[in-house]
Design a protein that fits this description.
Helix 1 crosses helix 2 and helix 7 crosses helix 8. With 339 residues, the protein is α/β, with parallel strands linked by helices. It folds into 2 domains: 199 residues, 3-Layer(aba) Sandwich (Isopropylmalate Dehydrogenase); 140 residues, Isopropylmalate Dehydrogenase (3-Layer(aba) Sandwich), CATH 3.40.718. It starts with 6 loop residues before the first strand and ends with a helix.
């Protein structure tokens, strides 16, 4: 653990994600640690008990009682989890995706968001979900970020933190062919305002300096490799600079992540998912954290997928989940100080 001050005066909701994946494994694994967090795990309690049996780890579950102050005195006890029971429609088999259980995954998210919005939880932390199986169940779903934005009627921005970097995205889970049309002046300005505000309020950075990547190779090469930089990105940045924001760019993405250059910025704003995230994940996979900016609540998540092939084997690494919990505690403390 990081040595930060205990967060036992706050309660964090932890959703276990896709039941056939490693989310339940990770929760059982972190239950063994001496965590300075007051956790409420949202899951089917039998799923957790069965996964603990497969992992050959001790686990005692206690029913979460949503009463003011409940659980704050004792905090987390190694080998134990407070569980807010969300029943599975069908028992889950590790590694076997079942569309019947897709609604269960969303029910956990709905409950965690409701608890955060009414102050029952200080933040929500999410284990990975499987987009494909949710869509196979007939439910349109593109990801946590978009779902939480819709649920809270917000404009969300995906930010990953790791390897000494913060990388935010202008677009998230879109086919590459749809990215240019989604990059408009209004969209860029709105997302950059969200990033700027949350870097101040949640990350306690007094004057954020943000590097903005171009969309095209070499940031368009003065219009020879694309005109989005000239027609869309530069006008949006100029407008925000006139309002006092410290923005640099658009910069060629192939050299933007060079460490000597990167150290001059508090955040990188990438135009699309696979422009910014491969570099960050190369530097920090397994310890990076996904933070959703722009929401009225605090939400962090792991930086990896469901890894259904590892479910029930004990080979999953809980490092990213621990980092996500630590980040939630930091953001909650910063928010408390800011307000």
């Amino acid at each position: 653990m990081s040595g930060r001050q205990p967060a036992k005066d706050r309660r964090f909701a932890l959703t276990t994600g896709e039941p056939a994946g490693i989310g339940a494994d990770l929760c059982v694994q972190i239950a063994q640690l001496d965590l300075p967090f007051n956790l409420v795990v949202l899951a089917d309690r039998e799923l957790l008990s069965e996964r603990a049996r497969l992992l050959q780890l001790p686990l005692e579950t206690t029913a979460y009682v949503p009463a003011p102050g409940h659980g704050f005195e004792s905090g987390h006890k190694p080998g134990c989890l407070q569980v807010l029971h969300v029943p599975l429609p069908e028992p889950s088999i590790p590694g076997k995706l079942d569309p019947v259980n897709a609604r269960y995954v969303l029910n956990m998210l709905d409950r965690a968001v409701a608890g955060c919005r009414k102050g029952e939880f200080s933040a929500m932390v999410t284990a990975p979900v499987h987009k494909g199986v949710i869509n196979d169940a007939g439910i349109a779903f593109t990801g946590h970020t978009e779902y939480l934005a819709q649920l809270t009627d917000s404009e969300a921005v995906m930010l990953l933190v790791g390897g000494g970097m913060r990388v935010a995205l202008a677009t998230t889970h879109l086919p590459l062919k749809d990215v240019p049309a989604a990059i408009t002046r209004d969209a860029l300005e709105h997302k950059l305002r969200i990033i700027h505000t949350d870097l101040i309020d949640r990350f306690a950075i007094a004057r954020p300096r943000i590097a903005v990547a171009g969309l095209n190779p070499h940031a368009g090469e003065s219009g020879h490799l694309g005109k989005e930089e000239i027609e869309i990105i530069i006008p949006a940045l100029d407008r925000l600079r006139a309002q006092g924001m410290d923005l640099v760019g658009p910069l060629p993405a192939d050299t933007l992540f060079h460490p000597p250059k990167l150290k001059n910025f508090d955040c990188v704003f990438a135009m699309y998912h696979d422009q910014g995230l491969p570099v960050l994940k190369h530097a920090s996979f397994g310890s990076a954290v996904n933070v959703t900016l722009g929401l009225p609540i605090i939400r962090t998540s792991v930086d990896h997928g469901t890894a259904v092939d590892l479910a029930g084997t004990g080979r999953a690494d809980p490092g990213s989940l621990v980092a996500a919990l630590e980040m939630a505690a930091t953001l909650a403390e910063n928010r408390k100080i800011a307000h």
